[in-house]
Amino acid sequence: MKGGLLMPCCSRRTLMKRGALALVAMGALPRFLVRTAAAGEQAGRRKVLVAVFQRGAVDGLSMIVPHGDPAYYAARASVAIARPAAGSADASLDLDGFFGLHPALGPLAPLWEERRLAAVHACGSPAATRSHFDAQDYMESGTPGVKSTPDGWLARALSARKSGTPSPFRAVALGSALPRSLRGDPGAIALASVRDFAIQQDGSGAVSARRGFEALYAQRSRDALAGAGRETFEAMRMLKAADPQRLAPERGAQYPRGRLGESLKQIAQLIKADVGLEVAFADSGGWDTHAAQGNERGQLAGRLADLAQSLAALDRDLGERMADVVVLTMSEFGRTVRENGNRGTDHGHGTAMLVLGGAVRGGRVYGRWPGLAREQLFEGRDLAVTTDFRLLFSEVAMRHLGVDARAALFPGFAAHLADAPGVLG
Questions:
Q1: Rounded Cα gap, residues 315 and 227, in angstroms
Q2: What is the number of other CB atoms lying within 10 angstroms of the CB of residue 305?
């Protein structure tokens, strides 16, 4: 991986191991470090984007169920989600007479009714690949079909955003490595855990903050990296002073104990600590359901329940702060319309994405529905893409984060808000 501090006598490294702080950026000198001196001026609430990547390709046809399309049930003998039925816990929750929520997403139903949650269906990439690796790379770089793009779309959005004096914690990913979408010029932090806040050097175990890392630079006072080393610790002190871990979930919010729930809990802590967070990123895995997918119950239902409980907890925890927050879910592609012989689904094309909070015009499923009859399918097998994911991402970046519409957010693609889904007011 490119990025990280340039260690003396060594090549670039990511300062990360197990539960430590990863200080990652493109280039030898991470730019967020040189902004730390101004971090004391950071205060107050900002617009925040929380991106949740459902890695493995979520079955959007089970997440947002097209129960009004008869071809859906004809193609899925065992994994289809039942049509809405009054009083039934094992049926989709009707949204608009045509689409329904998977019953495991029940915790999100109140947000839909309050018009703070929306969905964009038949959304995805124009690239036809069914490779997880390639499709994720294309989505995170924002350049479908191009593997040579050096930076990610969220990094470009931050570069183009006018946000005053940026904080060293303006972009944070909860995880052991920086995601592709945040690699780039502004710099970003990957935190395995807010609790485990220390610097460790790859290949050599823990390095004591004062006696190890600072000492490393003490003998190189004339080196530009000496200042960067000191500023690194200023960033550490800033977060320690804010002490986000002290901020327990509010209003009775209960996060599930899995990876996503823990990540969103810590993102909420960072938001409430007012450390200048602008973009947060969290991963959610386990969506590659080739076998034993299940329907209203089973493997997929369990993953959807975790997603719904995590998002609902974040919304409850942040309370009125959700007016400044937008949560965007994404997945590299969807699943085949027809189930396979293992009662699962294979790699597909279009899927569904969720948008929650902020100025979301919720209570609607956006996007043109292409239909599921065989002649309407992509390559005769998949839900066709009618909304390019770059249009949705552009709308979120421009209307929520305030990125200039003239910014080259997606190289080679002209994103006009007039063509966007319209999910944000």
A1: 39
A2: 18
Residue type, 373: A
What type of residue is 163? S
All structural domains of the chain = 43-182+256-419 (3.40.720)
Q: Are 125 and 138 in contact (CB under 8 A)?
A: yes
Asked if 343 and 79 touch (Cβ cutoff 8 Å), the reply is yes
Contact at 8 Å (CB) between 162 and 47?
no
pLDDT digits (tens, 9 = 90+) for 298-309: 999 999 999 999
Q: What tokens does 220 get?
A: 């190189």
Q: Which two tokens stand for residue 36?
A: 């730390």
Classify each residue of 84-112 as buried b or exposed e, where b means 16 or more C-beta atoms within 10 Å of its C-beta: beeeeeebbbbbeeebbbbbbbbbbbebb
Could you tell me the two tokens for 31? 């730019």
**Whose CA is closest to 59, among 113, 124, 4, 15?**
124
* 24 close to 189: Cβ distance less than 8 angstroms: yes
Written as one letter, the residue type at 156 is: R
**Residues 304, 317: Cα–Cα separation, whole Å:** 20
Picking from 61-65, 91-95, 195-199, 293-297, which range would have the lowest pLDDT averaged per residue? 195-199
Give the contacts of 92 (CB within 8 A, at least 6 positions apart): 65, 67, 81, 82, 83, 84, 100, 101, 102, 103
DSSP 144-179: TT-S---S-HHHHHHHH---SS--TTSEEEESSS--
Q: How far apart are CA 224 and CA 226, in angstroms?
A: 5
Which two structure tokens, joined as six digits, stand for 357? Answer: 């909070």
Say what the pLDDT of residue 267 is: 97
Q: What's the pTM value of the predicted model, to 2 decimals?
A: 0.85
Each residue's pLDDT tens digit, 195-252: 765 443 334 333 333 333 344 444 444 454 444 455 556 666 777 777 787 888 999 9
CA distance 333 to 348: 6
Determine the Cα–Cα distance for residues 242 and 37; give it in Å rounded to an integer.
Answer: 16
DSSP letter at 390? H
Segment (H or E) for 260? helix 259-272
